[in-house]
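Changelog note: in this version the structure field was regenerated for every chain. One regenerated record is shown below for reference.
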Amino acid sequence: TQLWEGEGKKRSLPYLRERGLTDESMRAFRLGYAPAGWRHLLDFLGSRGYREEEIEKVGLIIKKDGGGFYDRFRDRIMFPIYDIVGRVIGYSARVAPGGDETQAKYINTPETPLYHKSRALYGIYQAKQGIKEEGFSVLVEGNMDVIACHQAGIRNAIAVSGTALTPEQLDILKRYGKGIRLFFDMDSAGQSASWKSSLLALEKEIEVSIIALPEGKDAADAARDNPKLLLDVVAKATPVAEYFLNKLCSSYDGSTSEGKRQIAEGFAPLLFAMKNRIEHAHWRKELADRLGVQEKVLSDVLQRQSVERREIVPREEAGTSKPHEQINFSPHRASILRDGIVGLLFLDETLREKLNIEESTRVFLEKEPLFAFILDTNNNGGFSNIHTEEGKKRAAALMFEAEKLFQGSELENDFDRTERRLEVFHGLMRDIAIELRKDERENIARLLTEARKIGDKSKEQKLMERFLELSQGM
């Protein structure tokens, strides 16, 4: 009554209409207005026979320190919050236009025997049938967005009330549809909310997608200005893993080792959250392809990281985790072999004298800066050629690791030691050549996939010939 015929008719009703809400929509969601003043609701309910303690218990009035009570909601637009069967359990209240802007823009009913914010969803009563029919819910940021979406034909829209998305709310939504599409603002706060909500939903094996408006408007503005666009972006929601992987790849340089690390670190929590094994395997492979690394290397890193998270990162409450630990990629197998070869070459000058390396292996060995000192013929090459303290420490560490290869061996004299080192050296050289061929073959397989996608038959033929050549050689 206050919204349509009382004080709310002057300012609040015109404001809601300007935001694009129709009278029909406002009546369907039973919007109202709480007038300014300290005892309007208290006196009204008191005249209906309700005791002050009862009114306080459901969160509508507040007890004063010195005794007595006053209205909780004053000069605010009222959005009733329903439970799943259509009973009003609480309110979300927006400050009226021209009202006291120093107060919170929205205030909600506190925790009561009826209202539990961790389980409440604004619009769930009106949206449950739409969620059943579509198979997914559309989670928006605010009450106004919910009503605007319903008005535009998106009848499966809901919002959380005064809290971040919770596991309890997801359990409710999962009863009606297997998917959820997140429709938050494109600012940093909205993106953060999308990320956290996605992790929670994936852990519950709920399909998650992200809805993004090109102009960055909120749902209510889009519904008012271009309802067709709104329906289109909802229909074309991007799977959450694809959305955030694209953002990470556009934010960091994936051609550098540091960029690869940042992308992998950023994407890892999503992979950890995926309980569906097929989905996890698909996006793990996609991440490896985007980074240009072996899937096995990435899988080993992620598996180890997952164990460390379970052991080190405590859960404070369901759905809340500490920021993920930094991922440290263990060296690629070829890099480990390279370290062994360089260490042996520093360790034994007789190996340097017999150095005969094929071109592809030499190019890879030269990625280790210290290898240049081995090739330097001054002083017969080796450790004595290094002049920086950092270089000497690095070389000493490689020599120490190479020496460990022979621990436990029974070597009676220098000849036995040299022969054993030569045997190990040739084994390492053979293994590194195999690893480099494997790497090239996997890279060609990725390039083949890309060539087939764009229909480049000539490139595909050349790549296939090289792929078969490598396969036969191995």
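Spot check on this record: The first strand starts at residue 32 and ends at 34. Residues 195 and 244 are 8 Å apart (CA to CA).
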